[in-house]
Structure formats: C-alpha cells, structure tokens
Amino acid sequence: MKQLLILSGKGGTGKTTVASAFIRLSAARAYADCDVDAPNLHLVAGWETPPETADYFGLGKAKIDGDMCIGCDLCRQHCRFGAIDENDGEYTVNSFACEGCGVCEHVCPAGAAAIVPSVDGELRLFVDDEIDGAVDCATCGEADGGADFVADAKVFSTAQLKMGSGNSGLLVTEVKKRMKERSTADFSIIDGSPGIGCPVIASLSGVDMVLIVAEPSVSGISDMERIIHTAARFGTTIAVCINKYDTNLEKTEEIEWYCREHGLPFVGRIPFDPRAVKATNSGVSIIDIDCVSGAATKEVYERTMALL
C-alpha cells in the first residue's frame, strides 16, 4: 500500500482541508486521521455509519491499594514525578503526573502499589463494505482479533487521545496499523498532526511521500522548514504547496525560492477563498462546490500524484 502523508508543520494552514479534497479526488478507499490529539477529518469525511471503537491502552499507571498500604511513605519519597499525594495517612496517585515508571511498586514493602493498565484513548475505525463484488473473509482469520474483513471495503481509521494522556506516537502507530490490516487498497492518504512531535514522527514512518501544506507567514515558513528537515531524515519524497498564498505574496515568493534552493518539488498555490471556509464549516469538501480554491487544489492533486 502506497501512503501519501499530508503535513503542515503548524496548525491552521488548511492541511485537513487539502487532505479531505485529495480523498475525494482520488476516491481513496483507505485513509486515516493521525492528529489523535484533535482529530477533525471525520467532520468532512461524510461517514453516516458509526465507527467500530476500541479502548487504547497506553503505558500503565500506578495505583495504591488503601487496604494494603502501611503508610511507610516510601512510594512518595521515591517518586521523581511528584505523582503520589498523602492526605491524613491516605496515599493516592495523580494519574496526570504519573509516568508509569514503577518505582513505587518496586519500593513498597507491603505490595500496595502496582502498575495497572490505563485507558488513554479510543480507537475508531469506520468501515463501509457496501461494495459490489465484495468478498466477506470473516472466516479467513485475516482481520485483527477476528473482526470481519471485507475485501475492497472503504476504511477510515482515526482515534481520540484522552486529555492529559501521553503516548500519542504509539496511538498514531496503532491507527495506521488498523487501516492497513482492514484494507486491501493499494493507495492511502494520511492526515498528519501539526508540529514535529511524536505523532508526526510516527506518521512519517513507512510513508512513500509527504506533501507539506505551507502558510505564507513568518511562523508558517519557520515551521515548514522544521518539518522539511524532520521528513528528510526518513528519506521520503517531499513536495510543497502553499495554501492562502495571496494573503502574503512576499512570503509566498520566499517559500517558492526555498523550494528551488533545496531542490524540493513545488506543486502549486491555493488562494484564500471565503467560500471554502464556509464549505468546510458546513462539513463539505471544497471539491464539492464551485470555487477557485477547489480548482487550484485539483491542480495541486494532479501534480502531487504525478510524483508519487
């Protein structure tokens, strides 16, 4: 399965708008939203069926059994993260501060402290098997955990990380894994996270091409350069487009100059379009309305696919 990853380096560039347009233009049968901290691709994906959901277990968290606790205070003294509180002789764990290192379990003489599984998010998988000629392989054992597997089914994988939870990179890896396990498509589109943190690193792993949606602003250029340097470490093909290019023509020219200087394919400009904003707010892809930004995005799509 070839994978096209769409990144931005910063939030608000229009990355998800471009991703949703690409999904429509390519009639993609497999795609994923890997912005697990704040997923929003589902708002314009047009799914009417509810997703299959599953708990996501990240790293474990400490828990103290009050009945077994002898109040020795060793757990609190040894916790380097200040995650254990004591109140009138009762010890509790602040799950937001706990890193699951297990030192409390190690030092507790009474066995009252233990690392237990922690639900850190929810995995969501949308599957549409209403396709002519689809083959039900539920008895073939090809699906994850014995779930139904339908050849040529349309699959959309995403997840929601709980507020305050970490391990977003691990969750992104699981989102991509579930998409590949449930789809036989030979092409997929992945909507990544802004920034260059753990979820972006996990999104970059194994993809064939990265399209960077740049914004013509000082911060937009700085973040574009950072994500280009990050993606280059993975040895993947990188292309750049500019969204809302006409909001700052000077910075637009600066981005194009940067691409020429560094040998990066520049695949086009997308203008700012109030109609596109209205369509997106209504949950409609810009490809589905008659607007200048939609036409420009089609050109960007064609040039991008020619590179993949």
What does this entry look like structurally?
There is one protein chain. The chain has 308 residues and is α/β, with parallel strands linked by helices. The chain folds into 2 domains: 2-57 and 119-307, P-loop containing nucleotide triphosphate hydrolases (Rossmann fold), CATH 3.40.50.300; 61-116, Alpha-Beta Plaits. It contains 10 helices and 13 strands. The strands form 3 sheets. It has a 9-stranded mixed β-sheet with strand order 3-8-9-2-10-1-11-12-13, with helices on both faces. Strands 4-7 form a two-stranded antiparallel ribbon. Helix 5 (168-182) runs parallel beside helix 6. It is elongated, with a radius of gyration of 23 Å. It starts with a strand and ends with a helix. The relative contact order is 0.20.
**Number of structural units classed as domains:** 2
Helix content: 25-40%
Class derived from helix and strand content: alpha/beta
Corresponding CATH superfamily of the largest domain: P-loop containing nucleotide triphosphate hydrolases
- The top-level CATH class of the largest domain is Alpha Beta
Number of strand elements? 13
CATH architecture of the largest domain: 3-Layer(aba) Sandwich
* Cα radius of gyration in angstroms: 23 Å
- Strand order across the largest sheet: 3-8-9-2-10-1-11-12-13
- How many separate helices? 10
User: N-to-C terminal Cα separation, in Å?
Assistant: 12 Å
The parts where pLDDT drops under 50 for at least 5 residues are 132-146
- Report the major sheet: 9 strands, mixed
Q: What is the average per-residue confidence, as pLDDT, rounded to a whole number?
A: 90
Q: Globular, elongated, flat, extended or rod-shaped: what is the shape? A: elongated
Oligomer: single chain
**Beta-strand residue fraction:** 15-25%
Q: Order of SSEs, N→C?
A: EHEHEEHEEHEEEHEHEHEHEHH
Kindly identify the CATH topology of the largest domain: Rossmann fold
